[in-house]
Task: structure prediction
Amino acid sequence: MNKIDSLSSFFSYYKYELVGSTNEIAKDLALKSFPEGTMVHAIEQNKGKGRSGKVWFSSIGNLFFSVLLRPKVSKKIISQLSFVASLAVRQGLVNLTNDRENFILKWPNDILYKNKKISGILLECSPSKNNDLVDWVIIGIGINIKTIPNNLNNITCLYEHSYFFELTDVIKEVGNELEQFYNLWLVDSFEAIQKIWLKNCYPVGKEISVKINNKKISGKFHGINKEGSLIIKLLDNSKKVISGGEVNII
Ligand code: BTN
Result:
């Protein structure tokens, strides 16, 4: 085990130089009965995983870490944790930069800075039937600190905005916020998280497009419901509810 000053004692921190994916390492540790709060950080990943089977380009300079949690809840509500995690990332970055205006949450779990993606979250959990309790959940967090993967236009990093932080300071801020928001979720349920998320996401009424089974649906963002599903207002003013697994916002 390694150490980061002022990181909450809730976490046991393990640092690696190069791994395939920190989510995979954390999963192995989960299967070896490591406790809740186990945190895996890697300087570099060569098989970084993004959502929907995409690759997460993970070169040196950016931040890649995963946290193991063991909430005693049903699998049905586990995707709520991605909202918990995105609030933690946002708040951690706000604490570091003092900029509370420009970090915006985009459904389901992206964090944008000045309208460009700066961080993504990949949640994975133990297999179980719908209503069973999960054994473990891994929250994988990627934050662009120094480099913009593939120099893509709609992606940014902190460095591009002249913010220079030590990776360990970012882990400490985001980690400590994650513990707080996780406890809020455990004690107060999703409602409290939903309220804060809605205060920090992009504005209701914003035009969005969603891809479901390769079909594009356009409409206006209308918030999230109490399960964390996206509500989209269609052109005919009817509302459509879209749950996590099936879409990408484009
Ligand atoms: C996304 O597609 O937006 C989610 C990206 C999640 C990337 C992080 S980096 C740390 C952890 N390990 C992985 O392989 N993926 C997640």
User: Anything to note?
Assistant: The chain has a mean pLDDT of 92. Residues 167-188 form the longest helix (22 residues). The CA atoms of residues 125 and 137 lie 4 Å apart. The pocket of biotin is lined by residues 21-23, 45, 48-51, 54, 56, 64-66, 110, 120-122, 140-142 (CB under 6 Å).
